[in-house]
Amino acid sequence: MYVGTLSFDLLLGDVHSLKEKRSLVRPIVAELHRKYAVSVAETGNQDLHRRAEIGLAVVSGDTGHLTDVLDRCERLVAARPEVELLSVRRRLHHDGDWDDD
Questions:
Q1: Could you give the CA distance from residue 49 to residue 12 in angstroms, rounded to a whole number?
Q2: Which residues, 6 or more positions from 83, have their beta carbon under 8 angstroms from its beta carbon?
Q3: What is the pLDDT, as a whole number, of residue 49?
Q4: What is the Cα–Cα distance from 30 to 39, expressed in whole angstroms?
Q5: What is the 3-state secondary structure (H, E, C) of 40-82?
Q6: Rounded (5°) CA angle 40-46-50
Q7: Is the Cβ–Cβ distance between 12 and 51 less than 8 Å?
Q8: SS3 state at 7
Q9: Which end of the chain is more exposed for a tag (fewer CB within 10 A), N or C?
Q10: 44 strand-pairing partners
Q11: What does the alpha-carbon distance between residue 79 and residue 93 come to, in Å, rounded to a whole number?
């Protein structure tokens, strides 16, 4: 089993309230979930108007499929004109990385 994660650091455009921020972030989270069946949520910077952090995770038995899904998710977020993608952190984990209890 392989687990892949992405963490996006986003700069939002002309946003003046947390309500406006939610109206930009929620559709991105929903589209990632709908298109790629990933677990995704806003994971940081919830109290800042113009910054957002979105985290997602994918589980797969195949690293090729895992990498493909992560690549597609990254391209989707990078292509959104209402946000600027400041950074992406990618991690891949194998079930051998964890201790068996």
A1: 8
A2: 10, 11, 12, 13, 24, 28, 52, 77
A3: 87
A4: 10
A5: EEEEECCCCCCEEEEEEEEEECCHHHHHHHHHHHHHHHHCCCC
A6: 105
A7: yes
A8: strand
A9: C
A10: 53
A11: 26
Backbone dihedral angles phi then psi of residue 48, each to the nearest 5 degrees: -105, 135
> How far, in Å, CA of 78 to CA of 88, rounded?
10
Q: Residue 10: phi, psi to the nearest 5?
A: -115, 140
Helix (H) or strand (E) holding 6: strand 2-12
Beta bridge partners of 89: 7
- Answering whether pTM is above 0.90, one says no
Chain CA centroid to CA 57, Å = 8
42-89 pLDDT per residue, tens: 998 888 889 999 999 999 999 999 999 999 999 999 999 999 999 999
At residue 47, φ and ψ (nearest 5 deg) are -95, 0
